[in-house]
């Protein structure tokens, strides 16, 4: 295990440095070199405003803190059994995704965006299972939050890539509007999943992107539906925090949402309903929040 631990630590550090190099190049490349601009490579009905790319700064900072913290003894189990190979694989594939995306090959880049989201989703789920048994504030700040930001952003890239690959950005019509509407619904579904896990960092990333879509898009349907989603997600987030503090008095819709989540994830415990089984329902005091 010691050899695997140090191997993972070194690969995590190398993959992060590669990610940082790729990010700096794509965000700060000269304006005259349009193929190297992530923002302008594949414009579509869901392209957010350019300021959304500033999300790379907290993601890079969070992954940098994790890259340093992973060398401490307290992070050993989380590196091997939690994060494992998910971060290395997702960050490595991100470089290939960036090249194809920046050179206007959205179909090929989609083939990389899918495994990127899949790998980091698996890693985050493993980390969540591990952290739920032994919650720690330092692990939450230096491991859980960086992975949550990267997972949410990978989900955003997947949605935007799907829209760019399956639509005609030069002559958008009814099909493009329906596709954009359905993909925006995916944002709402992702936010709901984060809310069930009390992962408000992921919710903030999705809200940041949706604000960029509202500001940048001229389609009234896209703008107003996205604005409605923002209002709904913010309202549900406030209610979710209140309901977590009042676990004994959960409203029916929150209880149904938590039970559905546990049915879909039988090995995990809902943060709101920690002792809920598929059969009879038992409500106890909430556990320590590790994803807030």
TrEMBL record:
Does this entry carry the keyword Membrane?
yes
- The signal sequence is none
* Name of the featured protein: ATP synthase F0 subunit 6
Upper classification of the organism: Eukaryota, Fungi, Fungi incertae sedis, Zoopagomycota, Entomophthoromycotina
List all membrane-crossing ranges: 7-28, 48-66, 78-101, 107-129, 141-162, 174-191, 198-216, 222-242
Region annotation Disordered: residue ranges?
268-292
Q: What domain of life?
A: Eukaryota
Q: Which UniProt keywords apply?
A: Membrane, Transmembrane, Transmembrane helix
Does the entry feature the keyword Glycoprotein, yes or no? Answer: no
From start to end residue, where is composition biased (Polar residues)? 277-292
